[in-house]
Amino acid sequence: MAPSGDSEDTKKLDGRPQDGDHAEDKNTGCCPWFKNHLGVAACLAHGLIYGVVPATSRYVQDRGYTAFQLNLFNDLLIVIAVLCVAAYHRPNLVPTSREQAFRLVCQGAGRFVGILCQFSAYRYAPPATAETVISPSTIILVAILSCIFIKEMPTRATMFGSLWCLAGIALLGYSGITNEGPSTGDTHNVGLGMGLAFATALLFSMLYVNDKILLESTSKTMILTYTYSMATVLSGLFTILTSQTWYLEPTPAAVLFANCASRGTAVVLMYIGLKLVEINAAMALAQADAFSSFGLQWAILGLPPTIFDGFGVTCILIGMISICVWEALVQRKKDKHGKLMKQLDFNVPPSDNDVKTLK
């Protein structure tokens, strides 16, 4: 008499779940959900922490430091941390192709020029205002370049949230230009500062897209090593040739340390976000820097917020919340759909025609 229970081979042929399959499904279902939320949190944290950079950069430059020095100290701190990680893990840092080597070189040189333009924009225009030009321009340029080079189309929710962010940042920028307050530097040449800010946005958008392409075949350690090593060497050479002030009082020195630490932490968080979140959503979520940048500009440089600042922050908040909620809903829908498809595959084995259709 044949046994009443099914053998293991029969279960495998029938496509029915075996022992341990349910645990595996739970793990595969939870992991994408966790990674998606981790990416969103990393992008938001990047924006809030990066908002410390504009006002602190302007504060230190007003005490005699140059953009080359700020670039050097920022990149030197990051490259030391990256080299320590590389020495511990000992990854292969030799490029595997000419294209990869070219992209890594462009990443280092582009960062040096982009950060130099950014610090100069902070010098010739109110820092938070310059940042409000950089941020929306970067969103638009990243969306255009990502569609052209990596065929990554933004979702409707990302476009909706980005429009709200653009509206809010435009209001903040208008308020920063028209608001008259105590000045600490060469704010009369606002046009030059705005031009440098747009050039910074163009370079940053190219670097973000290049990062996304490199991350498909290159480790983060390798990208960071080449990028910040090259930028540090270039900044060091120009610093030796152009800088005259090296000593800082304790307070400006503490502000300089906060500037470097904030930028380094924000860079790491952005790399995590780009790996886990669609690039346009990551750029929109990073607009959280408006909250901290305008707050510190008021506290450090004495430029108080206006009613336009309040409306602008509200618009940015609406945009960020819409993107975060949509990212969560889309990922949950994908997880449920994946589980349903697995159950159907287990219980109703597809026919040959169905298999051909799916292929």
Automatic annotation (TrEMBL):
The chain crosses the membrane at residues 72-89, 133-150, 157-177, 189-209, 221-241, 253-274, 281-301, 307-329. Keywords: Membrane, Transmembrane, Transmembrane helix. Residues 1-25 are annotated as: Disordered. Residues 38-172, 192-323 form the EamA domain. InterPro entries: EamA_dom, EmrE-like. One of its GO terms (cellular component) is membrane. Residues 8-25 have a biased composition (Basic and acidic residues). It comes from the Eukaryota. This is Uncharacterized protein LOC118422053. It comes from Branchiostoma floridae (Florida lancelet). The lineage of its organism: Eukaryota, Metazoa, Chordata, Cephalochordata, Leptocardii. The gene is LOC118422053.
